[in-house]
Amino acid sequence: MMDRPKDGPLALLLLLLGHMISALEVPLDPKLLEELPQPPTITHQSPKDYIVDPRENIVIHCEAKGKPHPSFSWTRNGMHFDIDKDPKVLMRPGSGTLVMDISGGERSEAYEGIYQCSAHNELGTAVSNSIVIRQSRSPLWSKERISPIIAQKGQSLILHCRPPAGLPPPIIFWMDNNFQRLPQSRRVSQALNGDLYFSNVQPEDSRSDYICYARFPHTQTIQQKQPISVRVLDMDSLNDTLADYLNDTDLFSDKPAEERAPVFMVPSESVSSKMVLRGEVLEMECVADGLPTPAVSWVKRNSEIPSGRASFLNFNKTLRIMDVSEADAGEYRCFAKNRHGSVHHSIRVTVNAAPYWISAPRNLVLAPKEMGIITCRAAGHPKPSIRWLVNGLPIEDAPKDPSRRVEEDTLIFSEVQTGSSAVYQCNASNLYGYLLSNAFVNILAEPPRVLTLPNIIYQVIRNKPALLECVVFGSPVPTITWFKDSRSSMLEGNAYVFHENGALEIHMSQPSNSGKYTCVARNNLGISENHVYLEVKEPTRILRPPEYQVVQRNRDVVFECKAKHDPSLVPTMTWLKDDRELPDDERFRVDSDRLTITDVTESDAGTYTCIMNTTLDQDSASAQLTVVEQPGVPTDLELTDPGARSVQLTWTPGDEHNSPIKKFLIQYEDALHQSGVWHNLTEVPGTKTTAHLKLSPYVHYSFRVLALNDVGFSHPSMPSRQFRTSPAAPDENPTEVKGHGTEHNNLVITWKPLTPLQANGPGLQYKVMWRQLDMEKDWTSVSVANVSKFVVSGTPTFVPYEVMVQALNDYGPGPKPSAVIGYSGEDFPSAAPGNVRILVLNSTLAEVHWSPVSLESVRGRLQGYKVHYSRERSLHRHNSHQGKQRTEIFSPNKTSGMLPDLLPYSVYSLRVTAFNGRGEGPSSVPQRFEMPEGVPGTPSFFKVSAIDLDSLTLEWGPPHERNGRLSGYTFKYQTVNSKNDLGLLEELDLPSNQSSFTLHNLSHSTRYKFYISARTQRGSGPTLTEEAVTILDRAMVSPQVDIATQGWFIGLMSAIALLILILLIICFIKRNKGGKYPVKEKEDAHGDPEIQPMKEDDLTFGEYSDEDHKPLKGSRTPSSGTVKRDGSDDSLVDSGDTQFNEDGSFIGQYSGRSDRDATHDSSEPPSPVNAMNSIV
């Protein structure tokens, strides 16, 4: 337990000091350590118990630091050790480590003893532990004569090892002459002391080379005991061998060994005790004698054996508990049990403890006039005693220091003075060991200094904590304050945590926390400050993680992993497979945000993880890849439980390949009837591996199995052995039996033949039977083979028959067949429908009526009536074309029907027939009928033939389908404005013999839309439309023909185009050579007309306008064929003033006319023909 001061005021003082004083740690800054004085500190030393190898030099370590660097001295067995007197002992430079050179034959025993190192400088002395130096020893085995041992079968036996005592103790093991470890078991095992225990011996234990070996770890030498010979005898052979061994052997017993209850061989008493030290290893063992071999178990009374630190070794005979604590004390019981009884042994365990630290003393750095404490608290059992030393001397023998006071395990310092620095040692010891610790008191007076590097930039992720360091040193301990961006206000509040070491922590960093931070350190000797910077970055996040993938083998798979990150950070995408690097395989291709695996194999299955790393954070996501393929091939097909028509099939399924098997398909091959062809027999669920197969007679079966999963079918298994079934009579008759006639005096009987599998045996035939229904009592039959029909001749026309077909083979007939009804052949109907009448309903539709034929005249099954009709001629003299014959079919119960889509004003002829399955009968008497007039078709053409300022002439042709006598034409027209809005509709009636019409008094430069339709007495037909525009200028209208369609004009235009092309090529060549040409000279003289500004006074233009390219909305090319040229032609003429209306429309021509002429003609639109004439 912690040792508490008993004095109340002292406890209060210690509590007060604990709140007032924080120990000043000297940071391990190299520059600072070089500047500050510091008492010595032991940094490395040899262990307390140091066993050395006698063949090597002895090295005793002692390293220390301090400012100034310390000097070293040693004591041996409590006396000063003068290393200068022994030339074989050296001290390493700058160190206190001793090296004892024994290479010259010196014995290491001469240097055994207790050593202690001291490190001194002007501020104090630090001392090491007391180091006990002992030489490792591996003595030889003492000479002894070991007699052979004879044991009776079933007796217990102990082979003693008794190795020589060594330092440290040797490791024991048993081997034979061939250096092979002897086998151990629950019956034969090695105890902790090295002896070999036999719970009962057996004949196989007989051997002459039981050898105990001892290995000494420090010297790595192995010592060997003399071999022990053991012979195990049965009671029957004991009398025969007794005389041979009586004089020079040990004989255990002459009584037979019987089975017995367990008895402990180790420990021998019923209760034992064991002491173990805290932190060490506790080992307890129980070895029992018994036959049969007892089983050993362990329990702890009133508690549980610690599972995490306990283990059962040596076939449960040894209980080992690691890192023992006080809680492991108590009573442990081991039990040995066989079928004859049980026995137990109690081991009382006590746990003591060498001293261990509760609070080891710590170095103390104080400023003059400050207060401080050093505590030294240790625990152990029994309770350790505390002893203080200063600079290696007992504190009571050291010079008195008024600022120092000892209170048991605490040193109290008050009003310390410069020059009172020292190293204090605390020694805590009890019966089982000691602890020694150095702690210095260093009196320093130092102004603050900030040791953190200036202008460090800290980067942190948003919402993560930020820790800004401010490592400072000063004596007295400086106070630290923090500022942000400026020194105007000190940081404070719940958003910040100020650590004792000066660091500033921000719990949840936000972008607003970014900026410059200043830490200021102050004490009574000065002030120091440092600036650092904080940058808050956006976190890295995976937006689209990879998804679970199921892919077939040899396919490709793609994992996508899209992430976002702070744009100022450099990201790195890494992919892992099963938390390891991707395989070094070219099939794995990593792109910026995806992983592609081509030609996937089974080994590629696993967990794939994408990791997006930046210098500050990372995010990761994982997905599983499952590789599937068709199931493995089923194997081990076996046929069992054979029956006359059944057998049991079992198999072993193949690998599922990560896709569960849904079903098994069983196929068979019939080697007798269809060798090499496999047929599906049955299916079973994927959870089954057996099937009871129903078979057919007279088949040589071989079976195979295919497995199906979501990917597809496996390859077929190897075929099973052949299984043959015996022949039998057919189980079924042919199906689809029918009777029908192909001639008027026959009956054709057909059926679907049996398959070889359905035949059930050899000699398959068909017994065909028939009789006339209700007329014949007896069946007529015939047997046929290898056919599927039979023709019965000489039958009456179309009478019903009963028909049957029965299968039979060499083993008997099949089941009795069922009769079906069939009819003998039909003949053509003998009568025509009568009383045919036609009712005309309108100009395109007529209805025909007839009387049905008698049943006797049908001579078969009446299937309906056919009406054949055709157009003979038109009633119009201009159209007398004859039409194709058409046929309408009506059901047998109909006596009338409609004739659609007839042509008006035509003459039709019509006849009616009845028909059956054989064909049509005679026709009725032909009937003629006329169709009335109908509305006419559209006029054959409609065009504008002449255009003037205020008139238009239109022409049209009569319709091709007049459908009656034309009574006239309906002519309509209306204006169309630029927005396609229609004006008032005017209508005129024109006679039927008129084919043109001129409209006068029209508005000039106006678009019109015209409509025309033909009329008969039944009404007007469909309308034909046309559009045209009246002209603006009569001069633009050619009085003659359209020259654009004349051959000479087309040739002239082609020649001009070719000439222009040649001139352009020559100009291009000259320009490339840098030469001038006339056009170039003119451009140089007058400037580019393309870039001349427009003058307001004369409306001349310099810029190109696309207004001339815009066509009149909704305009179309007149039917006369004239061609309008757009304003692009003006680019071909270099001279002449071109003028525009106020709206920019073109009003002039490239003809060189005067302004007066241009003004006079401004009211007329440009004529394309005249424009072309002016160019020519």
UniProtKB/TrEMBL annotation:
One of its GO terms (biological process) is axon guidance. Neural cell adhesion molecule involved in the dynamics of cell adhesion and in the generation of transmembrane signals at tyrosine kinase receptors. During brain development, critical in multiple processes, including neuronal migration, axonal growth and fasciculation, and synaptogenesis. In the mature brain, plays a role in the dynamics of neuronal structure and function, including synaptic plasticity. Residues 874-884 have a biased composition (Basic residues). Residues 718-741, 873-893, 1078-1176 are annotated as: Disordered. This is Neural cell adhesion molecule L1. Belongs to the immunoglobulin superfamily. L1/neurofascin/NgCAM family. Pfam families: Bravo_FIGEY, fn3, I-set, Ig_3. Residues 1-23 form the signal peptide. Residues 40-128, 139-229, 262-350, 355-442, 448-535, 539-626 form the Ig-like domain. It comes from Carassius auratus (Goldfish). GO terms for molecular function: cell-cell adhesion mediator activity. The gene is LOC113042979. The chain crosses the membrane at residues 1048-1069. Residues 633-728, 730-827, 832-934, 938-1034 form the Fibronectin type-III domain. One of its GO terms (cellular component) is cell surface. It is found in: Cell membrane; Cell projection, Growth cone. Residues 1078-1098, 1153-1163 have a biased composition (Basic and acidic residues). Interacts with SHTN1; the interaction occurs in axonal growth cones. Interacts with isoform 2 of BSG. PROSITE patterns: FN3, IG_LIKE. It is a single-pass type I membrane protein.
